Amino acid sequence: MASPGSGFWPFGAEEGSAAAETPGTARAWCQVAQKFTGGIGNKLCALLYGDAEKPVETGAKAAAPGAAEPRPTCTCDKKPCGCQKADVNYAFLHSTDLLPTCNGEITTMSFLQDVVDILLQYVVKSFDRSTKVIDFHYPNELLQEYNWELADQPQTLEEILLNCRTTLKYAIKTGHPRYFNQLSTGLDMVGLAADWLTSAANTNMFTYEIAPVFVLLEYVTLRKMREMVGWPGGCGDGIFSPGGAISNMYAMLIARFKMFPEVKEKGMAAIPRLVAFTSEHSHFSVKKGAAALGIGTDSVILIRCDERGKMIPSDLERRIVEAKQKGFVPFLVSATAGTTVYGAFDPLIAIADICKKYKVWMHVDGAWGGGLLMSRKHKWKLNGIERANSVTWNPHKMMGVPLQCSALLVREEGLMQSCNQMHASYLFQQDKHYDLSYDTGDKALQCGRHVDVFKLWLMWRAKGTTGFEAQIDKCLELAEYLYNKIKNREGYEMVFDGKPQHTNVCFWYIPPGLRGMEDSEERTSRLMKVAPVIKARMMEYGTTMVSYQPLGDKVNFFRMVISNPAATHQDIDFLIDEIERLGQDL
Amino acid sequence: MASPGSGFWPFGAEEGSAAAETPGTARAWCQVAQKFTGGIGNKLCALLYGDAEKPVETGAKAAAPGAAEPRPTCTCDKKPCGCQKADVNYAFLHSTDLLPTCNGEITTMSFLQDVVDILLQYVVKSFDRSTKVIDFHYPNELLQEYNWELADQPQTLEEILLNCRTTLKYAIKTGHPRYFNQLSTGLDMVGLAADWLTSAANTNMFTYEIAPVFVLLEYVTLRKMREMVGWPGGCGDGIFSPGGAISNMYAMLIARFKMFPEVKEKGMAAIPRLVAFTSEHSHFSVKKGAAALGIGTDSVILIRCDERGKMIPSDLERRIVEAKQKGFVPFLVSATAGTTVYGAFDPLIAIADICKKYKVWMHVDGAWGGGLLMSRKHKWKLNGIERANSVTWNPHKMMGVPLQCSALLVREEGLMQSCNQMHASYLFQQDKHYDLSYDTGDKALQCGRHVDVFKLWLMWRAKGTTGFEAQIDKCLELAEYLYNKIKNREGYEMVFDGKPQHTNVCFWYIPPGLRGMEDSEERTSRLMKVAPVIKARMMEYGTTMVSYQPLGDKVNFFRMVISNPAATHQDIDFLIDEIERLGQDL
């Protein structure tokens, strides 16, 4: 743990107090593991005891150089022991001893197995509440703590394994049940397995020729997602893109092309001045996209929201009319289903009516809220999404798919292709021997495109739609539990009234010293500092993490979000206790 | 293997002939493996024998439901056997039995271990020349062969493992020594390990807060890459982006912003008409980017190339002058270091002089050729790159890093940030307790950004710069071997004269029936079909894969590229034999 020493810490740092790595859980599990035959019990125990975080003990290895030195059968009675492993001496091996080198099979398998053992241990620890969420160090400390530099000469495989351990030692455990910091949390085991397979398959999405299965799975999965959106028969188009911001940019790009296809060749100079509309609570990527596409951020008009963060349709209509009167061309409304901070759902039906009336492309940014389409109980919040022309939906958020997995869905088929295609003859040969409609790469902005679909597909097979539903319903139930717990609790103020629509719960913690104070400049300036200080302390202790931010005229407040299926009521209770423990003196 | 039956196959399909999976190699290796104690020998043998491609034998499993049923120590003398594994009966288990479920540790570890075993077997097979590069099936066949659909109800973990096996059965072995189809080939073991770790860490690059190590490693690695480019002290800026096309688009975006910063707010309407220049052999992403950014493809002027595919500087200067005379504003020259088809290097010094003279941003698209900077023998081909304002360099191509890994390097620090930042207060809080210069997310177009740096960093540690150099020099040497082999060989015509500059070797194979023919329309129309038919047959046999395309007035020719360190002289010989075997009757 980093030494705080940065001025704001009023009492001694209780080194490791909340995150002491007691082997209690490990011991209990080890007893279970020992029922396994064939040595796997010992292996499991070794993993559970977590000796992988210790530095590699070179001394314990055979000193002779060369790969794969066999050694006599172990007769030790100390458990756990490493007898089950091939005793490969990594101190004398390099990456050049691995495949594709001649006779590299055994060294390779041992090396990859050892990496996997390190990862399995990390995975198990991620879910163990007695471990820290983060072992926080300041950037300069971390740079000095270890030599991260790149050199001319190779390192041994022993050093490579040590690099892996060190990297994980300082990583955030994003799967930890008490990590609430982002919209993407959790670590799904089937998703992880699928991502490992994706890495081993190491291919690109641009043609059926080099990614036959993945191209078909993208087809199957996007169709299913369009069905969930409510487009008849799942018809339409789509793509997995590198994140919600890019998906939103795609939507803007396609909407512009639909209205003025000449923009592709002639650019913005050839078309009238466009304007887009989105709410003041929408994601910053709408403006970012407008800047990139040459539309300009001034042409993104921010529509007012009600006190819950939902776009006000009458204000939207007023601003559209106003823009038209100025001679501008409204081409896109980006509604939000699940805003980033409040988790608000814009009123999609009213917005759809306005888009229809003024013939404007309706995009729904459901990056965060799209997952609720999987829930029979909650999907009404997205009513009207079926009238959208395009939808962003990030399974790597509420559905817990490993990063990255973001889908852009488009109602009109073929538009993406016309908008983006450049007919590269070295990739999209027209005289191939198979059905060329499966060469989908030319509809993307990217050329090479990472395989993001497999983890979603495999998780969907493993859980079924009902499994995703249960997972999502549980997170929403937990958010409601938190809301009920703090709404009338002393020392808490809600940022907005009423039950949360998504899992976002926004609140101020008011430390005892501020509770009696009148609303004043002093109170505001002290309240502003509460969340950042508590958050900093959380990170230094490593016990939990939750986000905070200011918004408009509201000073820093906590934004709690729950997307991790590992979280329980007790973890919510823990968070509240921790906020109070760390904030009592402020 | 798919039944050809598509009309162009003149003789019987020799089922599995070239790709018969003889267990000879496996047997030899198994003997070595048996030297290992503690059962790992048997496990290695099982993997080497490749029984993972057989469907899961449910019958052989214990019938009792529930997790982790222990069974008595195995006494069988049949090797390999599965005795070393915990006998978890996946037929009765679901993803809900895995972590984070209570007591899910052992089931989880067994499941992930079984997935890893499937992957290890795939990895070992990938390098085995007796296995097919691809088990090709037409899209409709593949859709029918297996049920890929997504359902409401969950599948068992047994079915999930089967899904993994099936997916890999039909995947392309992109690491196979005879897979030459794309610029990205090969499967690096350290890179694979690093990608597995990245998946387990499952985080996002936007802030130091949630990716402390990866943010620092991106900083260290980009600085090192800028040093290799030749910028003093490695100064400058950069980012890992989702592929070369996006990196090139970034360059265009930043170049535009540098010249007209008001474009961010006001859009293209507020600035003069811009024009960009790139060669006729450049990558299509330059035009794709111009279309997206609202510049328009008509404003990308294609400069003529010499017969080797290099941009002609005098033509560039002429077109810049011409554009200025028309009142347009030249803002970007995108030179190419390693063109996609010919592997040509534009003359960067001459282009830099012109860019300087006319004050135009010089971008170098070194997506493919950038890797040669690692080679003391070949880096002169990029002389002048140090004068560029920005550089695209894809380590996932010539350096063999797993997909995706593309860097955009920018000489001027801070420009990316000014160009793209939107100050989202929920991510980039200004009152955090650590040095905010490490929160680099706001310089990206993306919000969430996949961790692409770790695999490059770990491979660099494992190989050292000298290891990358050796790997790259070897591929170039192989390309020269191929060139020397076919340049005067009967039945071959080179597309351009002279030794290849990169590993691209472009040639026509002239089947015996065409060799005597005069240059005529008939010959051209028959020659045009040769490469596609040979390629289709290669895929149906699954023996090797190489790309082809037409270019300008040149009909379909083979473009051989070598980026896979697994390839040898024998593999080059095999490719030539295979082309001749499959093309003799055409």
UniProtKB/TrEMBL annotation, chains A, B:
Matching Pfam families: Pyridoxal_deC (PF00282)
Reported cofactor(s): pyridoxal 5'-phosphate
Record InterPro entries: PyrdxlP-dep_de-COase (IPR002129), PyrdxlP-dep_Trfase (IPR015424), PyrdxlP-dep_Trfase_major (IPR015421), Pyridoxal-P_BS (IPR021115)
E.C. no: 4.1.1.15
Modified positions (N6-(pyridoxal phosphate)lysine) in chain numbering: 397
Location within or outside the cell: Cytoplasm, Cytosol; Cytoplasmic vesicle; Golgi apparatus membrane; Presynaptic cell membrane
Keyword Phosphoprotein on entry: yes
Record keyword Lipoprotein present: yes
Cellular-component GO terms for this entry: cytoplasmic vesicle; cytosol; Golgi membrane; presynaptic membrane
GO annotation terms (biological process): gamma-aminobutyrate shunt; gamma-aminobutyric acid biosynthetic process
Keyword vocabulary terms for this entry: Cell membrane, Cell projection, Cytoplasm, Cytoplasmic vesicle, Decarboxylase, Golgi apparatus, Lipoprotein, Lyase, Membrane, Neurotransmitter biosynthesis, Palmitate, Phosphoprotein, Pyridoxal phosphate, Synapse
Membrane topology: Peripheral membrane protein; Lipid-anchor
Matching Gene3D superfamilies: 3.90.1150.170, Type I PLP-dependent aspartate aminotransferase-like (Major domain)
Molecular function as annotated in GO: glutamate decarboxylase activity; pyridoxal phosphate binding
Known function: Catalyzes the production of GABA.
Similarity remark: Belongs to the group II decarboxylase family.
PANTHER family from the UniProt entry: GLUTAMATE DECARBOXYLASE 2 (PTHR45677:SF11), GLUTAMATE DECARBOXYLASE-RELATED (PTHR45677)
Subunit structure: Homodimer.
Name the UniProt record assigns to this protein: Glutamate decarboxylase 2
